[in-house]
Amino acid sequence: MTLIQHSRNLWEFRDTCNVFILKSDRDALLIDTGSGAIMRHLVDIGVDRVDWVLHTHHHRDQCWGTKSVRKSGAKVAVPEFERHLFDNVEAHWQTRVIYDNYNNMNTFFSLGENISIDAILEDYSTFVWKDYEVRIMPAKGHTYGMISLITRVDGQKVAFIGDLMTAGGNLYQLHAMEYAYGDLAGVEFTMQSILALKRENVSIAYPSHGETISGVSADIERLEPKLEKLANVGRLFTSGWNTGFEDWKTLRKQAGEDFGSPALGRPIHLLELLHRA
User: Fold this and answer.
1) Contact status, residue 117 vs residue 55, Cβ threshold 8 Å
2) Element of type H or E holding 162
3) b/e map 114-131, b = 16+ CB within 10 Å
4) How many CB atoms lie within 10 A of CB 25?
5) Which residues have CB under 8 Å from 111's CB, separation 6+?
6) Which value, in Å, is the radius of gyration of the alpha carbons in the chain?
7) CB contact at 8 A, 196 and 255
8) Does residue 11 sit in helix, strand or coil?
9) What is the pTM of this model?
10) Cα separation of 178 and 103, whole Å?
């Protein structure tokens, strides 16, 4: 476990995931918590108190230490479409099919116990802490409700992207692209998310695993053709089952739509449609 200083007020702690620390004088905001071991090292960088924890997604490598961090007085904010996998995850496990299950969506990597939360991070909203304005961007792909957090730190526009991608233009996990048995819906969602990130023109992206991404646009351009090839390997099934439609052909068209434009209003998330049905 290593502390890395990226700029005057931005630090990284290598743990079960990369934990990022934004400083404001002697207060801090954490992006994900990993095992929670960061709390023992904050004094080394002049931090007395953690005000907030912002989570990029629900996987337990990101947040299994959050309960202990919260006991220190920190508040917790989570993505709006994964809230139930934090504060109601025990119900998730009680209703999850275990045997004869062909749906291997990676919610199996959720926490085991509920965590109290204090705020919801809504897509396209802004979270304000001290002098930081953190914009919430949907980054679905690795999970269906993951978010990226975009802000300015020490004069640079940066993005904390969870497990959307890794340095070199790669996916962190291939199996996470399979949302249901035999589909690759995560490929299309990832394409949408990386192109939305590309339009943000951030200087640096900080993933939850691996090294810092300094050439963000270049690495996104490396990942794009890989996703197109992957979409040809299996079905996306975005058009439904047994339709005969080669839905991989829509990957680039779907990704090119400006679904993140404020002028279009707040887009409707897939989970909202399911909830309304």
Assistant:
1) no
2) strand 156-162
3) bbebeeebebeeebebee
4) 10
5) 58, 60, 63, 64, 85, 86, 89
6) 18
7) no
8) strand
9) 0.88
10) 9
- Residue 164 CA to chain centroid, in angstroms? 6
Each residue's pLDDT tens digit, 14-63: 999 999 999 999 999 999 999 999 999 999 999 999 999 999 999 999 99
Give the residue from 78, 14, 13 showing the smallest Cα distance to 47: 13
Q: Are 53 and 74 in contact (CB under 8 A)?
A: yes
State the Cα–Cα distance between residues 139 and 143, nearest whole angstrom: 8
Give the Cα separation of 178 and 230 in Å (integer): 11
Determine contact, residues 21/28, Cβ cutoff 8 Å: yes
Q: Give me the residues paired with residue 151 across strands.
A: 158
Contact call for residues 262 and 124 (beta carbons, < 8 A): yes
Q: How confident is the model at residue 236 (pLDDT cuts 50, 70, 90)?
A: low
Q: Six-digit token pair at 180?
A: 């249901």
Q: Which residues pair with 13 in a beta bridge?
A: 3, 19
Token reading at 167: 């340095």
Distance between CA atoms of residues 235 and 123, nearest Å: 28
Q: Which two tokens stand for residue 93?
A: 């496990």
Name the β-bridge partners of 255.
none
Burial 59-90 (b: 16+ CB within 10 A, else e): bbbbbbbbbebbeeebbbbbbbbbbbbbeebe
Q: What type of residue sits at position 214? A: S
